[in-house]
Amino acid sequence: MAIKVFTIGVYGLSEDEFFKALVSSEVEIFCDVRWRRGMRGKEYSFVNSSKLQKSLGDLGIRYIHRKELAPPPSIRELQKIDDAENGVLKRSRHTLGDRFIEGYRECCLAEFDSTSLLRELAPLRNCLFFCVEREPESCHRSLIARRLCDDLGLELENLHPWKS
Questions:
Q1: CB 45 within 8 A of CB 13
Q2: Which of 120, 123, 115 lies closest to 154 in space, CA to CA?
Q3: Is-contact 130 7, C-beta < 8 A?
Q4: Do the beta carbons of residue 78 and residue 103 sit within 8 Å?
């Protein structure tokens, strides 16, 4: 059985849609790559770390947090600069800025070892990378997943439950 890499964001999804997407994709490992693992407000409280871990556990999905893959504030600031220059709000962003991508690759992916991560995840097969942005192209999770897939020849699927 081949290993498959998934990504998902939470913006625009209900709790039910979010967890149905994980179950229907047979996700076995949920890799949280957020710097802060909390969300403000009730709408997305289901992805606050403790509640999320409980729900995933109930579904038989293993949870891991890889903070070293989360962009630190200094790198996130680079995206804020690009967003401001382009008049784009975070939730309506469709792509990452070049400054952010370069900074993220230098800061977080320079030491990233795909093979080591794969060993950590074994023997499970379907790994999902999670952050909050709706579109994968507007989130660092896409850079992580693409790197992992390119390095190891794995299949990637970005989950878009709202498009179903």
A1: no
A2: 115
A3: yes
A4: yes
CA 25 → CA 8, 13, 81, 87, 128, distances in Å?
11, 16, 36, 35, 10
pLDDT digits (tens, 9 = 90+) for 20-70: 999 999 999 999 999 988 888 899 999 999 999 999 999 999 999 999 999
* Residue 50, amino acid: S
Residue with tokens 């992992």: 148
Q: Alpha carbon of 13 to those of 18, 61, 101, 110, 120: distances in Å?
A: 6, 19, 26, 32, 29
- Which has the closest alpha carbon to 129: 147, 111, 110, 144? 144
pTM: predicted TM-score of the whole model, two decimal places: 0.92
Residue 4, beta-bridge partner list: 126, 155
Token pair for 65: 């947090």
